[in-house]
Amino acid sequence: MSAERLGEAASGVSVDPGAPPDRPVPEFEVVGSEPVSRAAAPTLSFRVRVTDASAADVYTIALTVLITIEPAKRTYDDETRERLVELFGEPERWATTTTNFRWTQADVLLPSFTGSTEFEVAVPCTYDLEVASSRYFDGLSGGEAPLRFHFNGTVLYANGGEVQMLRVPWDRSARYAMPVEVWRRMSAEHYPFRTWMALDRETLGRLMRRKADLGLPTLDACVAELLERGESE
What we know:
By secondary structure, the chain is of the alpha+beta class. It folds into two domains: 3-190, Immunoglobulin-like (Sandwich), CATH 2.60.40; 201-232. The chain has eight helices and eight strands; from the N terminus they run H-E-E-E-H-H-H-E-E-H-E-E-E-H-H-H. Strands 3, 4, 6, 7 and 8 form a five-stranded antiparallel β-sheet that branches. It is elongated, with a radius of gyration of 25 Å.
């Protein structure tokens, strides 16, 4: 409640509890997600709706969006648990190991609006399976990946012909169940029939020398040959 309304309440003047707030109070909801087509690097786009109950003209919101993964918010079949054992350990430990962990952070500058608008949060992604988030998404056989979006930033709005500034309330967050199919479509566009793995330069050099020694056409063929030799010993 504003200082003016507090004064009205203290003086016995009735205050309408249903009256709109006298300053922006943004609320956020994630309403969809899609791979960004023809992006230079793998990128997901999340569509977010912001609503404000005040009648203020919001010039912009300089927003920081932190996205975390909440693995305990869904169930897993035995096959999925096996794929995620390196990330969370043996199934009997999952009650304590499937804690929330950070995925990524993005900065967004919202357009001006009054009442509500929608905007896009673009999230560059990696398919490096040594990164926990990629390993998690890749390990899911289907269904949805439970995400939580945390919103922070600064609101610039009009008030009596002047520009006012306030902080986005600290508790603004929204859950979103991202379809695993969205992640798979993005991965298929950039890495069709393949995965991506980061190697130390020295390791890559040794692998390329071994490929040449064996007379093999690709690094994939070289790795397959080394695996077959190891399995046959």
